[in-house]
């Protein structure tokens, strides 16, 4: 049962913790001594408080013995000698100080953050302060901190230190471990691709810290430091003191563009009605996969743009359209658009009531005819056609390493073609996010999947296994262009030249309709979603338009 301790001293340097370590020792095991917390020896804690003189004498004896390295003698000045002796030995063996100097102070109160035993006897403890100075080989300065000793009355009439993790350090808690680990320097600054600061953007708050740690992970770049780790691993280690300095890390440039980031923040804020609707947006550079901007509403919560997972509606028809083109359909193929059809035993309709028996596939795509996609998918595709082409060509469903946690698109393979039909129009069990759907448009623009990244030059990026045939790719581009020139995106894209797009409207769990949009223009691909935003042209498309108008100036 590994237990130990946690501290935070805000004055120590800007280094961050590495994942390696010198091996942790769980101080709480030593603190309990395996005896269930019971004291060994003739003395026991009794009710009442020791006198100030008794408390001062016992505290001084404890601190003197600790300073001299006589840990057995120090332990005898506590109410739990065996546990104290073991914990002090762990402090020495794991931190390996060259000298320890503990200086008695005077009466005090427990500082903020100190955990104090609230038992009946402990409530009568006399609190005395002390100053700690711990020196290390290779360090030009000592680690100093202030501590507190709770002094209790014992059955022999004397005082003793009431032993607990906080005696070693006032923030040391059960479930935490005191240790020495490698530390790596933080980047002095994280900037956009042009060296401009990114600290003013609400959607990036807290996320930029992920990039401040040195990226090499080379042990030769590491220093060493005193840290406190969470035994459960749920929180990152907290650095207390740097023993030896790590190798400095220069400023880090992300792929983000401050101009586009500003536009993304404004667009999401507007279309989410000031954050009253959940929304997100991502902009990508198709030629590289570099993420140029991402924004979320509300800010400060989940990075919905990367980690969200909802049905994308008809924006998925870009992928389904690619599958149908590969199956032999062309933009000129006559495919009727009836008012309703059946998908998986459910009736599916369009956003418009009238029938269009005269439509070609180009018109079905431009007007987002659900029934045409369902019927043609049932005739031309297999149950696994959509997830297969999504992974092989568009990289959806592969594990992406973007630099931030991301949800990898999930397009399940149904048992039969009838089970696959809702997925053909971006409904059913599909789950994805604007990062993925911006990448879909980016892949159409470039012809090759480039996994989105926030730090250029990553070598651990996912690779798609193939590209589309040039004729299929050209036809798919023409379909996306028709959405803007004669289809559902004509109004929101008015006045913006050379946009290729697809709108989407997703009905999720009976909670209304979510607005989706994906598009590219030149070397820029954008996707946006607004929960409860209605049709794709009503909220998501206007959000994306802000960035498409700016374009990727390089």
Average pLDDT metric: 88
So, the CATH homologous superfamily of the largest domain?
DD-peptidase/beta-lactamase superfamily
Low-pLDDT residue intervals, each spanning 5 or more residues: 1-39
Instruction: State the strand order across the main sheet.
Output: 12-11-17-16-15
Number of beta-strand segments? 17
Termini, distance in Å? 55 Å
Characterize the biggest β-sheet: 5 strands, antiparallel
- Beta-strand content: 15-25%
Fraction in helix: 25-40%
Number of domains: 2
Helix- and strand-based class? alpha+beta
CATH T-level topology of the largest domain: Beta-lactamase
Rg result: 32 Å
What is the CATH class designation of the largest domain? Alpha Beta
Describe this protein's structure.
The protein is an alpha+beta fold and 554 residues long. It has 2 domains: 148 residues, Nuclear Transport Factor 2, Chain: A (Roll), CATH 3.10.450; 286 residues, 3-Layer(aba) Sandwich (Beta-lactamase). Helices cover 26% and strands 19% of the residues. The protein contains 14 helices and 17 strands. A 5-stranded antiparallel β-sheet has the order 12-11-17-16-15, sandwiched between helices. A hairpin with a 7-residue loop joins strand 8 and strand 9. Helix 7 packs parallel to helix 9 and helix 8 packs across helix 13. The longest helix has 17 residues. The chain is elongated, with a radius of gyration of 32 Å. The chain starts with 15 loop residues before the first strand and ends with a helix. The N terminus is likely disordered.
